[in-house]
Amino acid sequence: MQTASFRCNFYLLPAFSLYAFSSAIEVLTLANEATGQNAYSCQVVSGDGQPVTSSCGITISPAVGLRSERDRNLRSTPAPIAIVCGGRSLPRNDSKLEAWLRECRHRRARLVGIGGGTFVLARAGVAEGRRCAVHWEQFPLFQEQFLSVIATQAAFERDGDLYTCSGGDASFDTFLDLVGRDHGVAVVNRICEKAVACRVRSAGDRQRLPPNSRIRFNHKAVVQIIDQMEAHICDPKSINGLVAAIGLTRRQVERLFKRELGRTPSRYYLELRLERAQLLLRTSRLSVIEIAIACGFVSASHFAKVYRIMHGCAPHQTRLFLREVGQDHPYNPLVGGQLGEKPGHIPATANRRLGDDIAEVAACASRLSSNTQRSS
């Protein structure tokens, strides 16, 4: 087994996930204990050497800035492991960071993307033709932006020397896999015992709970159909086609959906697509027509009509509201952050711009805020 000591450079993006970061650090720390050697040394890097604030408001001070690390990186043997740790917010373009990642790849260093860090790897061009795990909320936007990357909704992926994980709990599994390839399964088992971890996911395992656990129903056929619906948002399958694949009649499946979910399969499928559309409105700069196409609608007018029926406002009004209140505002328990000042709050600038539509947007804002509070 490999016994070389590796330096691990954690580049922290603004609003990074402290949970994912600390999980990775803990695995490497326990790996040193389990092997009885300094197998991994870790340091935090930031773009300018200044402290970086996590999504929960806790600030981490880096050891070095990126420029100093790039100079040191060229002289290090073996090449350090480069880890870009993000969160659920989308990272901004950073040409210097992307250049550093290309340098690391040129030196055959292992690269790791955590959460939003996978976007940075893709922008740097080091993930082309590779499998990359992307958080399910960021997945539709990632697919639209990076056509040459094989995006998956797995907990984490390992494709050669490239590791990507969806964030959260998956960071622990990702670094267990990395350590296991260096030091073997016995070391991984000792780490799990010390961390009181009784379940370890493998590369390619699903990141989300299965539909029956998320929505609380039990019938296997409903689970199978919903899995297929979620896999075919941009290219919707006919209900008859979904039903035929599991060997039931349409009438049987409609009764099952009514009993388990209180709605028809067609209605549930439409809600899934509109949920994806709202996610793209919130997280992407795609036009409304591009979002309509990405969610399987044949025209922008049809998309706008059903979206208004479902959410009580037009797609562009949802985007305007989120821009006004600050869609990247973190839900930060340390400062009591939440979306907007109160349910239904619209800033004064929005009032002036929306004019006659303000009442409709306020209703939309109230709906969005209440949905956010229920899900948080």
Automatic annotation (TrEMBL):
<keyword id="KW-0732">Signal</keyword>
<dbReference type="InterPro" id="IPR002818">
    <property type="entry name" value="DJ-1/PfpI"/>
</dbReference>
<protein>
    <submittedName>
        <fullName>GlxA family transcriptional regulator</fullName>
    </submittedName>
</protein>
<dbReference type="InterPro" id="IPR009057">
    <property type="entry name" value="Homeodomain-like_sf"/>
</dbReference>
<dbReference type="Pfam" id="PF01965">
    <property type="entry name" value="DJ-1_PfpI"/>
</dbReference>
<dbReference type="InterPro" id="IPR052158">
    <property type="entry name" value="INH-QAR"/>
</dbReference>
<keyword id="KW-0804">Transcription</keyword>
<dbReference type="GO" id="GO:0043565">
    <property type="term" value="F:sequence-specific DNA binding"/>
</dbReference>
<feature type="signal peptide">
    <location>
        <begin position="1"/>
        <end position="20"/>
    </location>
</feature>
<dbReference type="GO" id="GO:0003700">
    <property type="term" value="F:DNA-binding transcription factor activity"/>
</dbReference>
<dbReference type="InterPro" id="IPR018060">
    <property type="entry name" value="HTH_AraC"/>
</dbReference>
<feature type="domain" description="HTH araC/xylS-type">
    <location>
        <begin position="223"/>
        <end position="321"/>
    </location>
</feature>
<keyword id="KW-0805">Transcription regulation</keyword>
<dbReference type="InterPro" id="IPR029062">
    <property type="entry name" value="Class_I_gatase-like"/>
</dbReference>
<dbReference type="Pfam" id="PF12833">
    <property type="entry name" value="HTH_18"/>
</dbReference>
